[in-house]
Amino acid sequence: MGEQQHVKFPQEVIDEYDALGIDILALFSAGHLGNRMGVEIIEASADRVVGTMPVEGNTQPYGLLHGGASAVLAETLGSVGAMLHGGSTKIAVGVDLNCTHHRGARSGLVTGVATPVHRGRSTATYEIVISDQEGRRVCTARLTCLLRDVRAGDGAQAGPSV
Predict the structure, then answer these.
(1) CA dihedral 95, 101, 102, 105 (to 10 degrees)
(2) Cα atoms in the 13 Å half-sphere on the side-chain side of 102
(3) In sequence order, what are the beta bridge partners of 115?
(4) Mean pLDDT over residues 67-79, rounded?
């Protein structure tokens, strides 16, 4: 779970990070928390990030998908989009996340799709729609990230704000 071996990146993004000697799959992964929750990023570009997460293991006491789990998926996907928009000279730091939960999910996978609302020089905002396996909307989230310059010490470990 959580392995990022099959992520589809645009070729220009792969080339940019390869030239810097940065492991793009590690940089744009779900991070430690996302990995523990089973988040898998399927597709990633500044225009669209798609990922999945199992409901099992991510539920609250009533057996429904935990709202915090939806927030983790949303912030992961939106942060990856913001990082790809910012490019190799920027780091995305989440500054605002809000989630509206529309319906519960009890089993299967949920899928999140992040698309940009705003992509500027210093901030990027993404809307993330999370749906169940029947295509029903479970959650709508919006994430705004500050895009700050990479600083000494950030290194290749500086990834999305998840």
Answers:
(1) 130
(2) 11
(3) 127
(4) 97
Give 9's contacts (C-beta < 8 A, 6+ positions apart).
Answer: 24, 28, 44, 45
Tell me the Ramachandran region of residue 86: left when phi exceeds 0, alpha when psi lies from -120 to 50, beta otherwise: alpha
**160 φ, ψ (degrees, to nearest 5):** -55, 160
pLDDT range class, residue 5, cuts 50, 70, 90 = low
Instruction: Out of 3, 43, 75, 134, pick the active-site residue.
Output: 75
Active site residue 127: no
The DSSP line for 135-152 is S-EEEEEEEEEEEEE--T
Cβ-contact 49, 114 below 8 angstroms? yes
Q: What is the pTM of this model?
A: 0.86
